[in-house]
């Protein structure tokens, strides 16, 4: 954890910008190590010139289109983070640049509005509505006025709501382990990642952070357990900078790997599995906990460890929404490398990476299984249908509408609205 040093998240980003202005020498090493830069609209421009423009912008507001493109074509993989000879973190500099652009009135790419939690419609809300009815929810949207003291709060995050089979498997695992826990969903509650990293609104991001911590703190827990690595980064890298986090913070595989004695595996999984380490998993040093958890499952053989250790593979991140052509190029490389190992299952813990893999289901037999799903299966738990996979395999809008009508209508989405929205998410041939 970091020592609390800043009065606000905005002040933290201002300090990142100040350090960049003082120390950056415009060497361009960060862009030389960038995964998205060589395939971005800036690919033919000198990296040194681009970095000088970014620093000039942070210093005195000298705006250019190149600065905007560099900031918003960033896939936010963090591959550049260790590349600076001056000890700066270029990933954070890009975040600070996005925040400053928005403060100066520059709007993020239009697609960003569709991924912000709490808005209706938004991407996660729509995908969740296709798969579950409100009566099936096993979580609270906010803490009640007088909650019961609970040892563990499981926070689902926002993106995982689009994969209810993963959530149900995770909760089944915790129940089988005899855990005392309560579950809070994302949506109304949010760690703030989309608001700052994507939308550049540090004030709203901080507001959401404080609201979330207050809701967790209401249960007087010993710890919070997170199932999204993006949330884990917020709790461990950002929150302690400007607010008090007075409970333990654990990631799902981190908690499992430390409590394997409580996970009673009764069903050997005789299969090969390839694990993709998400960029945020690598950044937050969670890879070992994923490996330890998977290797504890009887019969499971983990293959392609070199793929997990390879730092240059990214699903495309936020660029899959903001600059899809760029994001999809990165995702294609990841899928191609994954398929070389011909594993029975592909696994991940990052919802954003899983979304990227879903895009390729019609072309590649990826057979995706989240780590929580594999653990639950090995513990003899219920196997939940991956309804999002079924949605991606639909050949037409009409097929998808009929398959999901009962669910989305129960969530208050009219068919007309869904017919307008869904072609922007799913690549139906008739809408290309």
How does this structure look, described?
The chain has helices spanning 9-23, 29-32, 47-60, 65-72, 90-103, 112-115, 123-131, 164-176, 193-198, 202-217, 229-242, 252-258, 279-283, 287-295, 305-309, 319-322, 324-339, 351-358, 371-378, 387-392, 397-410, 415-421; strands at 152-155, 181-184, 223-226, 248-251, 271-275, 300-303, 345-347. With 432 residues, the protein is an alpha/beta fold. It folds into 4 domains: 9-103, no CATH class; 112-258, 3-Layer(aba) Sandwich (Rossmann fold); 263-392, Rossmann fold, CATH 3.40.50; 397-431, no CATH class. A 4-stranded parallel sheet has the order 2-1-3-4, sandwiched between helices. It has a 3-stranded parallel sheet with strand order 6-5-7. Strand 1, helix 8 and strand 2 form a beta-alpha-beta unit. The longest helix has 16 residues, at 202-217. It is globular, with a radius of gyration of 21 Å.
Radius of gyration: 21 Å
Q: What share of residues are in beta strands?
A: 5-15%
Shape field: globular
User: What is the count of DSSP helices, taking H or I runs of 4+ residues?
Assistant: 22
The CATH topology label of the largest domain is: Rossmann fold
> What's the architecture of the largest domain, going by CATH?
3-Layer(aba) Sandwich
Report the span from N to C terminus.
48 Å
Strand order of the largest sheet: 2-1-3-4
Give me the count of strands: 7
**pLDDT averaged residue by residue:** 93
Structural class estimated from helices and strands: alpha/beta
Please provide the ordered H/E string of secondary-structure elements: HHHHHHHEHEHHEHEHEHHEHHHEHHHHH
What is the helix fraction of residues, given as a range? 40-55%
User: What number of structural domains do the residues give?
Assistant: 4
Largest sheet, described in full?
A: 4 strands, parallel
